[in-house]
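Hi V.,

You were right to ask for the full record rather than a summary. Here it is.
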Amino acid sequence: MDGKEVDMAVSKVISIEITDLNTKVCEISYNKKVPSVYNSICFANPEQTVEDALIEDRLRYSSELKAQLKNAGIKCKDVVFVISSNKILSREIMIPDMKEKLIESYIEGERATYFPMDISDHRLSYTVIDRNSVTKEMRIILYAAPDMVIKNYNALAAELDFHVVAMDCTGNAMYQYLSNNQASGMDMYLQINENNSLFTILENGKFALQRNMSFGACSLAEHLVDEEYYGIITPEQAMMKLAENELLYGSYSEMMEYMPATEEESKLYECKKRLTDAVRPLIAGFTRVLEYYNSKNKEATITKIYVGGCGSKIAGLAKLIMSEFEGIELEVVNVLPNVKFPKSNKLMADNSTEFMACIGGAGFSIDFSKNNAAEEKKGATAFAILAAALTILAVIVLVGVPLYNYRQAISRQEELRKSISGYQNIVDIKAQMENKESKLDDLEAFDEATITNNENWNSILEQLEIMLPTNTLVSSVSSNETGVTLVISIPTKIEAAKLLVQLRNLPIFEDVQINTLTENNDESTGIKNESFTITCVFPQKEVPIPEGGTVPADGTTQEDIDAGTGITE
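Predicted structure:
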């Protein structure tokens, strides 16, 4: 097992994936190549309890999860959490070939070199992709999960009296399932979930590329809820209508050519047009990923892509995507291969692809929860020593003090225990605070990125109106992020020099330069003037380095992706 030790005493687990909207649970055999799903449930999270994988209201959420498990008759206490969060970073790295037991200590020693931000408060785990016997190197997908996320899930497990077997992430869990079922031919797989889409490419069963796209099925459902065509409907009703009615055009050319003949047709056309337009972000992201992959693999030919997840059930979506990619067939996967489940489990029979992360996480998963095992072992040793010392002290107290004092001490101990239990919610409050601070940092960085030098344009024009003599002719003005260029005709060199000095005194310019002056003489009018180009340079601000964000798994930059463009958790 890559990145974790398999608990041989565990034969069955409940595998749980928590998204912002829903929770999916599988009671499933553990660490089996062909797993058996004994039971499965999916339920909507209580409102405002989960945000980007963090359980923000642990009491309400744990109560709902406990009730759902009880209603389904699921009693297993061994749990695998599959974390679905944008906070988890991933990157493909190469390290020297070494024994499995040495990998963890090696990457811990080099952790500061892998990501362009401070990850001292993250836990690392990894998956070995392959080993090169010629170069003596290993290809690894490295994952980094924030401590606050791991602690948040450990607190939830403690609340429900769960034994945490492993903590995986969605991207790796899906890769593990696809890799272990390469005989099924699903080397290129697009998973369209509620809030995002994940595109995974394998080569000979090995990881090649994985990209996360922001489009999710819920975005279409929200558009339909906002439409007036069906009246007032809930998001759940909207998803049903999207699955039962073909509300997307087969192509964008068909949408543009269609001419409604009646008022009713016009209303339906506007509804379908908005929904079809809402799919453009998915197609744009999909295009960048395919172009990037083809640029790196010029001999590769993509002919078929498999599609799953709740979005694959939207009528006409696969057809619309195919219309934009000539020669590529999209095949919707209804039932995952090599997964056993009872015929009575209709949820798995109809929606098994939606549980792919839960199924993959119960197999060869990574494990963030064991990352600090050494520290925990030291802590356990210290606790054992402390416990022994306390035992000796207790014997002395019992022998040397009256029974009354002993009872008073027991009473005081119980009071302290109750007092300590009242502070358990501090972990949740701290996690919420760190989450809000992270979002605030992102917003401030976004606001900083929107500031441009051209915001001073009105001020520049006002200053020029004051400075320029009335008989000055401005032939052209151009502006960009670096500065302003003006082509000017002015009566005399003295006035040109005066204008230069005035412009250089403006704080909005770092430098002002004039090229060679050209003297013009209009013989018909006898008017003379000086023509020249003046260049005003803005001060150059430093571009801040982002504090967070996911580095693509193959080490490419965002510029690479945008020019012709990760996973997991």
